[in-house]
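ok so for the tutorial part 2 we go from a plain amino acid sequence to predicted structure tokens. step 1 is just haveing the sequence, like this:
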Amino acid sequence: MTDSPAVGVTRDDLDPAVAVLTLQAPARYNALTVELKDALVAALRELGEAGDVRALVLTGAGKAFCVGQDLGEHATALRDDPGSAFDTVTAHYNPVVRGLTGLPFPVVAAINGPCVGAGLGFALACDLRVVAAGTSFSTAFTGVGLTADSGLSASLAHAVGVSRALELLLLNESFSAEDAQAWGLVRSVVPAGEVLPAALELARRLASGPTRAYAEVRRAVREGAVAPLEQVLAAEAAAQARLAGTTDHVQAVAAFLDKRRPTFEGR
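step 2 — the prediction. this is what the tokens look like for a chain of 267 residues:
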């Protein structure tokens, strides 16, 4: 896996099929420097090609999940070459979101502290989210005269509805972990010290499931949120056809008929 001080990739002690990807810039609250963004893009690419990973937990080191773009570095880029200062959107932010959403297994965000800007975009690119009590969230973009990146314009609207997404983006008001749970943004709010264990427990559950089916579900829901009904129906039919001959499906049907619990192998 990527050997970088900016990110860490480890395996869960109880289930090595679960990987943990940690943003490792705690002194900067995991602000997104070029070094961290490069490492994150590379790590996601390698995880997608690993072959033996069945679930991923994304988290941050220290007291924050991710506070978005490192504005000090951005200010320098604006001063030195304003014409290329926003190349990072296509070079980093878009590949990170595509990397997270395109992985062939589920991703759980363990949101251990402030989750801001692109950090919020990355969290919403994950499938499930566990958050520490007391965590604050913010879109942040209009606060520095920008619109959203990292797919947040779509993912936030899909998660909370267009009206609330506009409110959060236009007014740039922070919201709490409890707000996020009430709006359906996160699965659970837990004490700070329990965030990673709770996320790992969820990831282990997913890793033991039908990961081929999970990959189809992830794709179908994201595409179905914006596609016409006829396209959704056709895509569902094609996905079920792809899964029809998988070992997981055949064995699960047999297990159901035998009144026993199925065992999924991800193939």
